[in-house]
Write a structure and sequence with these properties.
8 strands; alpha+beta; 5-stranded antiparallel beta sheet; about 35% helix; 3-stranded antiparallel beta sheet; about 35% strand; single chain
């Protein structure tokens, strides 16, 4: 069979099969990209949610560890908000740090103990719909943080200088 006979025997299938194969590969590639982008977006959102609440808990934990001295940390309230109260002395003056949730943020307020202030005066640390805590035992705090999507994270912090 020579070349001329071969060219005369071409069928439509010789054109349609490669075209169909190309279409199937293109459709599969597009479907794979769409599925992967959905998974990636979901993973990023979950990571951001975890980041915000875990960062709040890490911040408070570090503050408690920094101030860990005899009877300086207590559960209390400030301007109607539950707050962690940290008392410290600098240059014979008594200062208080309040850590509390107000208006969608974890806030921190460092003031002299005899000065009055309101909850709105605290510095915004990170966005958090809720921050709560309980002293479960002497020197053991259970901290909770609720992020803007309503997911709650928690951790325990031990105060080593507790009586």
């Amino acid at each position: 069979m020579n070349r001329r006979d071969y060219q005369e025997r071409k069928h439509v299938i010789d054109f349609l099969f490669p075209l169909a194969l190309l279409f199937v590969l293109a459709a599969t590639s597009v479907a794979l990209v769409v599925l992967a982008s959905g998974t990636y977006s979901r993973q990023v959102r979950e990571s951001e949610d975890s980041f915000s609440s875990r960062t709040v808990l890490s911040y408070v934990t570090e503050k408690l560890h920094q101030a860990d001295s005899s009877d300086s940390i207590a559960a209390g309230s400030f301007d109607g908000q539950d707050a962690i109260v940290i008392r410290q002395n600098y240059s014979d003056q008594s200062y208080v740090t309040y850590l509390y949730a107000y208006d969608g943020y974890l806030r921190e307020l460092f003031i002299r103990e005899d000065v009055s202030a309101s909850a709105a005066d605290g510095r915004k640390i990170l966005a958090a719909d809720g921050f709560s805590f309980e002293e479960t035992a002497d020197g053991l705090f259970h901290l909770y943080c609720t992020n803007q999507d309503g997911i709650t994270s928690d951790t325990y912090v031990s105060i080593k200088s507790a009586p």
